[in-house]
Amino acid sequence: MMKSAEIRQAFLNFFQSKQHQIVASSSLVPGNDPTLLFTNAGMVQFKDVFLGDDQRNYSRATSSQRCVRAGGKHNDLENVGYTARHHTFFEMLGNFSFGDYFKRDAISFAWEFLTSEEWLGISKDKLMVTVYQEDDEAFDLWHKEMGVPVEKIVRIGDKGGRYQSDNFWSMGDTGPCGPCTEIFYDHGEDIWGGPPGSPEEDGDRFIEIWNVVFMQFNRSADGTMSPLPKPSVDTGMGLERIAAVMQNVHSNYEIDLFQYLLQATAKATNTDDMENKSLRVIADHIRSCAFLVVDGVIPSNEGRGYVLRRIVRRAIRHGHKLGQKQAFFHTLVQALVDQMGEAYPELKQQQAQIEKVLLTEEQQFEKTLDKGMAVLESELADLKAKEIPGQLVFTLYDTYGFPVDLTNDIAREREMSIDLEGYETLMEAQRQRARAAGSFKVDYNDSLDIDGDTDFTGYNKLEGSSKVVALFKEGD
Ligand code: ATP
Ligand code: MG
Ligand code: MG
Ligand code: MG
């Protein structure tokens, strides 16, 4: 049975044997890219190379990139705890060609690594692939050269079709993009879900493991697409997802690394029920929170710092739900260091600092969490409707420091929704009062200033997630 760390190493070795330069993971905070909240894919550190604005002394690269998807275009925060496959933090294994090889090699490298006995040796029967609607070339490569039967190749178009998946990948609203081909693993008929392109594709039976993007265009802010200087390749495979396949388990949370974190979380929250969803949320969140601190993000009321604050508070609230009212979250850094400190020495080096930052945030939120929950419970007890009123959402935010998505998380657990519009109206009124009073200098409330007045959009909007039914809305 291959451990996660062994899979990571095998991947890098494989691509090194194919003349790829091994490149270290870059920071979660993208250098010099105001269009992007966090590094959300392996290609981010190579963006300028794809665009032709930067040159390297290699034309093939491979990496294991730490990624966070908790805001912006790719946001999986709402999926955590609900799907078997999404994390806020994960590692993306990737191989890249900067105007070197293109479709044929990209497809055959991926297939060889997955199926050859020398490497992962995954049974071909369990795999299926998608290609972009018009991409006959990719279709033929899969069918004629790799021998994938036609019934296991699905053509998928752009987003906006009937289902959520699309086979045109982009990093954000602007930047390099192109058609892609994706590889899925069938975890078996016992699990609910259907193949990509089917009405049940949101399920977790067929899990996407690898996305191979044929980078061909640069999308600019006005939406126009211009060709890149040279056709290139960008691929991404989630380490946790491929580890689940290799360890014969279905959910990412059952892999070696997460089992260890879940045990530690259960211990820290005095929980016996290992199936409790809150354990998974906390085990997920400690990774994104710790690594964001490693990369210099500090909890605050705006921008990246506010995303971090939201994730920490969400984790603490889940601990609270498990009955742990003392500060516990920071103690999980040790378990994370045990699991990932070797691959990421910076995590180990900064352990004390991470614990301190998280503890401070815990202590601060502890002061209001209990009271806020009590207010919420008492108001909900009298509430007939299935929607938490905007006024209450606002009070929880404004007086008790509950980020809106945290309240939404609670609502969803109770099969309720929140009145996001009502909340936003109150927020806007408060901003106007603050402006009118010229009170910018007065820090009269700790949790002010999360309004939309920032370069990033997306994370301060719930994007439809206030509907309890929208479980998989943020799939892509
Ligand atoms: P999904 O459709 O399952 O949400 P995706 O299409 O959004 O995945 P890509 O943007 O294509 O994912 O990213 C490349 C790969 O990274 C995916 O094939 C998957 O293996 C992995 N991946 C993506 N998002 C996550 C996540 N939130 N947690 C863990 N792994 C992920
Ligand atoms: Mg997908
Ligand atoms: Mg994908
Ligand atoms: Mg997705």
TrEMBL record:
<keyword id="KW-0862">Zinc</keyword>
<keyword id="KW-0175">Coiled coil</keyword>
<keyword id="KW-0648">Protein biosynthesis</keyword>
<dbReference type="GO" id="GO:0006419">
    <property type="term" value="P:alanyl-tRNA aminoacylation"/>
</dbReference>
<keyword id="KW-0694">RNA-binding</keyword>
<keyword id="KW-0030">Aminoacyl-tRNA synthetase</keyword>
<comment type="function">
    <text>Catalyzes the attachment of alanine to tRNA(Ala) in a two-step reaction: alanine is first activated by ATP to form Ala-AMP and then transferred to the acceptor end of tRNA(Ala). Also edits incorrectly charged Ser-tRNA(Ala) and Gly-tRNA(Ala) via its editing domain.</text>
</comment>
<dbReference type="GO" id="GO:0045892">
    <property type="term" value="P:negative regulation of DNA-templated transcription"/>
</dbReference>
<protein>
    <recommendedName>
        <fullName>Alanine--tRNA ligase</fullName>
        <ecNumber>6.1.1.7</ecNumber>
    </recommendedName>
</protein>
<keyword id="KW-0436">Ligase</keyword>
<dbReference type="GO" id="GO:0005829">
    <property type="term" value="C:cytosol"/>
</dbReference>
<feature type="domain" description="Alanyl-transfer RNA synthetases family profile">
    <location>
        <begin position="2"/>
        <end position="476"/>
    </location>
</feature>
<dbReference type="GO" id="GO:0005524">
    <property type="term" value="F:ATP binding"/>
</dbReference>
<keyword id="KW-0963">Cytoplasm</keyword>
<keyword id="KW-0820">tRNA-binding</keyword>
<dbReference type="GO" id="GO:0000049">
    <property type="term" value="F:tRNA binding"/>
</dbReference>
<keyword id="KW-0479">Metal-binding</keyword>
<dbReference type="GO" id="GO:0004813">
    <property type="term" value="F:alanine-tRNA ligase activity"/>
</dbReference>
<dbReference type="GO" id="GO:0002161">
    <property type="term" value="F:aminoacyl-tRNA deacylase activity"/>
</dbReference>
<keyword id="KW-0547">Nucleotide-binding</keyword>
<keyword id="KW-0067">ATP-binding</keyword>
<dbReference type="GO" id="GO:0008270">
    <property type="term" value="F:zinc ion binding"/>
</dbReference>
<comment type="similarity">
    <text>Belongs to the class-II aminoacyl-tRNA synthetase family.</text>
</comment>
